[in-house]
Amino acid sequence: MKVVLATLNAKYIHTSLALRCLKAYSQEEFPMDIAEYTIKDPPMTIASDLFARQPDVIGFSCYIWNIEETITVIDMLRKILPDATIVLGGPEVSYDTEQWMERLPAVDHIIMGEGEETLRDLLRELSGSRKFHFVFGLAYRKGDEIVVNPGRPKLDLATLPSPYRFEEDVPSLANRVVYFETSRGCPFSCQFCLSSIEVGVRYFDMDRVKADILYLIDSGAKLIKFVDRTFNIKRDYALEMFRFLIENHRGCVFQFEITADIMRPEVLDYLAEHAPPGVFRFEIGVQSTNDVTNLAVQRRQNWNKLVRTVTKVKESGKIDQHLDLIAGLPHEDYDTFRKTFNDVFALRPEELQLGFLKMLRGTGLRLDAEKFGYIYMDRAPYEMLGNDLMPFADIVRIKRVEDVLEKYWNAHRMNRTIEYLVHVAYPSPFDFFQRFGDYWEARGWQRIGHQLEDLFVRLWAFLEEDRHPALDPDVTLALLKIDYYLQHKYKPRKLWWEDRLGKEDWTSRFKRAAAELGADERDLAKKASIDRVPFDYARWERDGIVDRSRETTLVFVHGAGEAPARMVVLDGQERIAAGN
């Protein structure tokens, strides 16, 4: 019996941990292949590849991001491989399972919940007596009847073989994301999250976890993302893992989902002292700072302790932080969400992810949708379209914030400029991103592509037209210039602003720059950009004062290859040097 386990990942660099867990558990009894595609692959391409494998059993791992694309492939496979057994599993089909069986007549079986043991038992029945009623956690067809068996007890994690040691994965480890679990389950009960349904947390053996991680590092893994819902729920376990990874990282990067308000001070102190810069990344789900909202979704969160953790981690300068928000939660209208956004942006995370509530199957919030007046998409990803307090018109506006936030803050293309705009020139970060997002949308830019220069040109066009009274055009243009130069590894050939230096002025400043830097003029000309700003930039950066009594000559020395550009300020009360 030939078995193929397949899924459609969101991106090529992603890998499916679920498929590898299933294969590791059953491969000695039922050899199987893994087939990974992406949601961007044409369905005909996927179907053709699976057809060429001529499987007897095809299993698909299903999530909200791939279910609709997977259904298209399944419908094709049923026609070209009429005798194949098609099995679905994964969180998207583990709830409302009977409805899925009714909607998808091409599907023979659905596995609910943890699938390792259920898949093995199903394969045994398919190759034997086909008594499917013995398989806990399985839905199947019996003539025209749909049968949903009782669920399966939780697995003993100590019985699960490692899913990280397949030789065929080794050649691609350096170029793809490795997903890794040290535990299963979540201690919290957030009503918008599927993890709230499973009570309790189970851990894999620490020695096994360490051995698997060392194997992956030795085999070339460069990025390992831990999928634990709350990596730091057990202080001693988390501290031991952090210590182990610090001692053995060898250049590999690790990303964790942590709950910031329960992070113990001694763990923070240890990380601040010992964590190598750039090796750890933290993803922190804030979702809302509105107490009434958090109470409604059964989310326990101590904002003051969360701020303490995020601030201490940021001050260490060693760990990038990715903070998540969810727009559309109960009891949160446009104004209270604005406050949530500004509260979190004030922490200046390296990335602020603005998402929108998804009414996931099986969650408490979906069951209570009518209570809050929710309307939402009928098909995955089930994103909310409005509720009693946040109508669709507000959702659309906040989506414009999300668009420009991603391009201008999360991409870190112009940190100096954005910091000035959100801190000085506009009433709040949210107000800036909203006004700019509205402007972006009104000009139809969301429907066309952009290059680096376009982002600067469009922002400057908005600022010139918006003319916010607190905005100083000289400071804004100077910061835009600096950010633009520092985005280039090589000397830019094209400048988008109009007030450029004349030839004689440029030559005079260039010769002075070469002399003061002690550089060869010919060599410097190849890699340096020279510009000016009409005020004392060093004083502005230090004190926030715009002193127009003296101007500043800026020299940008562009590196080679991957080396970033650096800036040298020649004039003013003091000389400063800065990188990107």
TrEMBL record:
What sequence ranges are listed for the domain B12-binding?
A: 1-133
What keywords appear on the UniProt entry?
Answer: Iron, Iron-sulfur, Metal-binding, S-adenosyl-L-methionine
* InterPro entries xref list: BchE-like, Cobalamin-bd, Cobalamin-bd_sf, DUF4080, Elp3/MiaA/NifB-like_rSAM, Methyltransferase_Class_B, rSAM, rSAM_horseshoe
Q: Which Pfam families match?
A: B12-binding, DUF4080, Radical_SAM
Indicate the segments forming the Radical SAM core domain, all copies: 172-399
Whether Ligase counts among this entry's keywords is no
Residue stretches in coiled coil: none
> Per the entry, which co-factors are needed?
[4Fe-4S] cluster
**Keyword NAD assigned:** no
Give the matching SMART domains. Elp3
| Signal peptide positions on this chain | none
Protein name as annotated: B12-binding domain-containing radical SAM protein
State the taxonomy lineage.
Bacteria, Bacillati, Bacillota, Bacilli, Bacillales
